[in-house]
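Incident log, structure service

09:12 report received: a user says their structure output differs between two submissions of the same chain.
09:20 pulled the input from the user's history:
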Amino acid sequence: MKFSMGVEVLDQVANQVQSIIIQKVVSPIDSFVLIEVGSSTVRFTTTDRTCELQVTVPALAEQEGSITVSARTLAQIARALEKSETCILEFDPIKLKLTVISGSSNYELQTLAAEDFPVLANEEFEGSFTIDASNLLKLLNTTKFAISREEQRKYLKGVFLNINKKKEQECLDAVATDGFKMAMTSTSKPTAMEDFKGVIIPEKAVNTLTRYFEPKGNITVHYTEQKIRFVSNGKQFTSLLINGDFPDYHRLIPPESNLILSLEITELLQALKKVMTVSSDPNEVVVITLTNETLKLKVTSMGRGIAETEMPVSYPGDTLVMKFVANHLTGPLEVLGDGIAVFTIRDGTSAIKLRKQGDEDALFVIMPQTV
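09:34 re-ran on a clean worker, output below:
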């Protein structure tokens, strides 16, 4: 096995695939990357036995073959080499070493047999569909902040993809919730999804897709009840799905109310950051006092002090005092970006709804603190 490629490309690929590796591996080969050289491409594969990332890139192949080496070591070497250089990788079947040569640098790496590499991405899938890459990544990026961190309810530790009917039209929903906040957004339903039952994509898979898949072209999705695969632009990512029933998220949406509060997103975020300066805890509680003309924010941090600020508003209801965990508010506001945030409020103890003015796809539900 022998091939050459640009160091910059090797650096990008090696760092992507090594991010899948976990600290505590079952066996040494679980920390290795499988390198497979074809006639004009080379494929790099890593796995943690629950998910698998494959990246295929063009290469100048002199001899086809396959071998495995330490993923982190290869990434460290690629990071240290001059990015403008070309590197040559060659497997010596006598020494059982992979040689990496670039400029004046020369490395010999320990290897393990390619045949021993654990395979997750077989071809047994029950259905598939194709979706615009930017649409899928937007679904995941909009909702992932609301994924639960609790180990007890594993069915909340991911993003739920589900077919739903909205205004008599079928759409694809993405939903995440931890019981205190919920993020939901939708896009038009891709074709060939008639048999799609809904799946819960684990947080690690969501983060890998949003970090390494590009928002251009299409992504082809293959799925079974236990496994899902995403293929696009030379990348293939396969993950086991989370077993369990995701809650009926429609029941978590509060009813409509005529108490509407509209605020500039950037101004509200700035106000929240001001009062959070006295606390380093993102779970600190922000007390909001809302009147017809002002919105006051207050944070009291034990041992550090008190911060208060206010901003002018136009609110049609009676005076309210509400308490929210700080990052339950900042999370959706940062996702929405610029524009006008529209809050639908019932009272000081009920969940509030948050949308961005002009955006009917994304909806956020935030529960206040009641103690």
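09:41 both user submissions now match this output. Likely a transient worker issue. Closing.
09:42 reviewer note: The chain has three domains: 2-116, 127-251, 253-366. The chain has a mean pLDDT of 94.
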